[in-house]
Amino acid sequence: MILVTVGTGQFPFDRLMKWIDALFQYGFLSEGQEEVIVQYGNSTILPGHSQTHAILPEAKFRSLIKQARLIIAHCGEGTVNLLESTTAPYILVPRSHRCGECLDDNQIELAIALSQVGVPIAWSPGDLVRFLAEPLRSNPSAVPEVAIGNLCRKLEERFGKPEEFSRSPERASDSAQETAQDPAHGIIQDGVLGSVQDDAHGIQGSVQGVIQNGALGGVQDNHEVLSVG
């Protein structure tokens, strides 16, 4: 069984729902081969071919985590902490402020930090395709606390503390301007079928041909800025 979870926040995560639906459409997921359970929260678009729940009771949710062969989850701090104890491979999909999926870009910042210690992150549907083909088990808890602390301080220096970041109108204005100038943003808003189709052709020839361009626009630039070695 594959578990998809977006948490219980107030914002929809329709982008991930479109990605999951596209994976079914292009044959990377199959209803007849494996059950897919989707906890969709406040999303307004639901993927077909799957069992969907807006919210799951905590006991049921923990049980599904134990049963799951693979997990696809949003990059919320609570979800990440919960997944540390699972033995199932998982991949995290960060919400984006510019897509109206959260108040700020803290999930992107967390995802960048986790990616630097080997946690699988999906910046595009192609990353999900690669993960489904070759799931990797990560163990962020094995990273020394000193290294995590240093990384967190550098993130705060770059973006400010979470509460400052979320309340900054200047930051929100900058984000809106970046969105208007970012042509890749249209890929996110219009769905990702074009990108997934590129993936399908790449997978048929070579896994290395999957997705050359990330679907999250400025994330690649942020990754370069935040590279701390």
What does this structure look like?
Strand 1, helix 1 (14-25) and strand 2 (36-39) form a beta-alpha-beta unit. The chain contains eleven helices and five strands. It has helices at residues 14-25, 58-67, 77-83, 106-115, 125-133, 145-159, 162-166, 169-181, 185-189, 193-205, 219-225, and strands spanning 2-5, 36-39, 51-53, 70-74, 90-93. It starts with a strand and ends with a helix. The chain has 229 residues and is of the alpha/beta class. Strands 3-2-1-4-5 form a five-stranded parallel β-sheet, with helices on both faces.
Principal-axis shape equals globular
Instruction: Give average pLDDT, whole number.
Output: 73
Q: Helix- and strand-based class?
A: alpha/beta
Q: Over the alpha carbons, how many angstroms does the gyration radius reach? A: 17 Å
Main β-sheet description:
5 strands, parallel
Total number of beta strands:
5
Q: Secondary-structure blueprint of this entry?
A:
Blueprint: E1 2-5, H1 14-25, E2 36-39, E3 51-53, H2 58-67, E4 70-74, H3 77-83, E5 90-93, H4 106-115, H5 125-133, H6 145-159, H7 162-166, H8 169-181, H9 185-189, H10 193-205, H11 219-225
Parallel strand pairs: 1-2, 1-4, 2-3, 4-5
Supply the key terms.
five-stranded parallel beta sheet, 11 helices, 5 strands, 46% helix, globular, disordered C terminus
Structure summary:
The protein is an alpha/beta fold and about 230 residues long. It is built from 11 helices and 5 strands. Strand 1 (about 1-5), helix 1 and strand 2 form a beta-alpha-beta unit.
